Structures are given as structure tokens and as C-alpha cells.
Amino acid sequence: MRIILNCEFFSIELISRASLNALHAMSRILLALLFTLPTLLPAQTLNLYSARHYQSDEALYADFTKTTGIKINRLELGDDALLERLRAEGKRSPADAVLLVDATRLWRAQQEGLFSPVDSATLRERIPATMRADDGSWYGFSTRARVIIYDPAKVKREQVDTYLKLADPVNEGRLCTRSGSHPYNLSLFASVLERLGAERTKAWLSGMVKNMARAPVGGDTDQIRAVASGECQVAISNSYYWVRLNLSDKPEDREVVSKVAMLWPDQDGHGVHVNLSGGAVAANAPNRESAVRFLEYLASDQAQRYFTAGNNEWPVVDGVDHGNPALTALGEHKVDPLPLAKIASRSPQAQQLLDEVGYR
Ligand SMILES: [Fe+2]
Description:
The protein is an alpha/beta fold. Helices cover 49% and strands 14% of the residues. It has two domains: 148 residues, Periplasmic binding protein-like II (D-Maltodextrin-Binding Protein, domain 2); 143 residues, Periplasmic binding protein-like II (D-Maltodextrin-Binding Protein, domain 2, 3-Layer(aba) Sandwich), CATH 3.40.190.10. Strands 1, 2, 3, 4, 5, 6, 7, 8, 9 and 10 form a ten-stranded mixed sheet that branches.
């Protein structure tokens, strides 16, 4: 009897020890897995193709990774080079999200099938309908305005306070612009086309060609410098180039801003033309979910401030305070409410009109 009990006791103890050993072994395996899993499984990543390269973007990307755990691999290229790369890579492209400037560029890329539409309640709620593609192919995240720069010593403000006046005979020989085909100008011209129709827009563009002090050349800052140097008296520029010159400590830049003035066009009419910096999910995004989260992140209050600070632009999300004294210094202004997708869709016809009137 005792032996049996002993045996039973002995056998029970044996099983318990075996179980304990097994449990220990299992917990050791679990612990080991816990530590090695992050290296075995790929961490969530985002391959970002960006035409932006500003200091403040570093903080933006770091904050995104901190918030979401998604690591960003970045490729920074100029707008055109970036699009060329996407085209060349085709279906094998590692790009997940794409950042570009100007609605005309984004629209073209959309037409080429380089983007994949995103249906996101967050983006629909946060980004105004006028600042995104109708089908969610791209979303604007900051805005810039196309302002008029003039020489107040030689030009009366009221002679150049609308885009249409740039074609008035009074401004003959005064105007300088960058290429008409550049997306910044093409979008502006397409907005005029959307409002006035082809005939009147063609007459306007033709008037501007007649008023040119020189053939179109250089970028927006070059136009501002040309007004300061006296080569011309009126120019068109994106607002951030003007702000950049105003913030510069360089004596040559100080001299430029002391000689020229900036005005908000069409403030008694439709308002100044604004364009955007925008983002999209790439057509063949391997990490689509990460890309959508990135776009949604860009629409957050925090990201809006980072995103706009880098290039002295305005947030697109309603109620976000840019907190940028350089923008406040530009004063209040009325913005043209035309939807940018609509404007951009007019850009091929605007280009055709440019060709017809010989606006290079
Ligand atoms: Fe620019």
C-alpha cells in the first residue's frame, strides 16, 4: 500500500517536474522570440519620394516615426526628375508616397496613372475640397500664392493690381516672367482660362507677350531681381520667394527688397491665385497602408505647422495657426476659391494658347 502511494507520489512529482521543465523551456523560447522578432519581421517602413528638401522636414519625419513606428526611407529629387524616376521604375517602383509641388504637376501625374486614389475620411474632412483631386489621387498640404512684384518708383500700384492689367498697354515694355509653360505660370493662366474662356485668355496672354521687357528666362527670384535691377518693372512670383528675400541677411537681397514692392492681386475681384504642395500614394506602393497613414499624418495640426514652416507656406487645414511672423507680415488677403483640380485640368489648353501667342 505504502509502495503504491510512494509510487503514485513519485510518479506525480515526476510529471510536475517534467511540466515545470517544459514550461521553463517554453518561456525561454518565448523570451528569445520576443527579442528577435523585430529583426526577423520587417519593421513597418515608408518609401518616400519627395520634391521637398527643407530643414524642418527632418523634424516632421522624426515625429511621424515617433507617432506611428513607421520608418521613412527618403529619396529627394527635383519635381521633374522625381516623376521621371517613377515612370522609369513602373510596376517595380519601391515608392509608397510622393510629395510634389503645384496642382498642374500633380494632375499630370494622376493622368499618367502614377498615383493610386486614397479614400480616407480623415483626409476628406481635413483637406478642403478645392485643394485635392476629386477621386483622392492627391491632396494639398500647404498653399503658396502667386503675387505681383513691381517697382513703386516707376509703376503706379493701380496699374498692376490685377492679373489682367499685366496685359494693359500702359505696361508695355515693363513685364518680365519665367517661362509661361512652367507649372507655376501655367496653373495661373489655366485659372484665368477657366474664368474667361479661350478667346479672352488668348487676348490676355498676347497682351502680356507684347508687354514683355525681355524673353521669359530664369525662376521667380530672378524676376524679382530683374525688377530691382531696372531690367523690368513688373513681375509675377510665388509668395515664398518674396518672403525668402525678405528674411535674408545678404546685403544684395536687402537691396532687392528695398527697391521693389509686393501686392496681392485681384483683391476687389476673385482673389489671388494660390497653388499647393501636395502628396499622393504611388500607384504600385509596396507599403500602401504606411503611405495612407503618412498622408493622414500630414493633415494633423502638428504636421501642418512643420510642413508649412519649411517653405513659408500656409496650412491648408482650417483653423491651424501657421505661427509664422513672416507670413503675418504679408497681411490679410483674399484667395481665389476655384478648385485646383479644375484649374489643373485646363492646363493643356492653357499651354495650347501659349503656343498660339508665342509665349515661351
Ligand atoms: Fe518654387
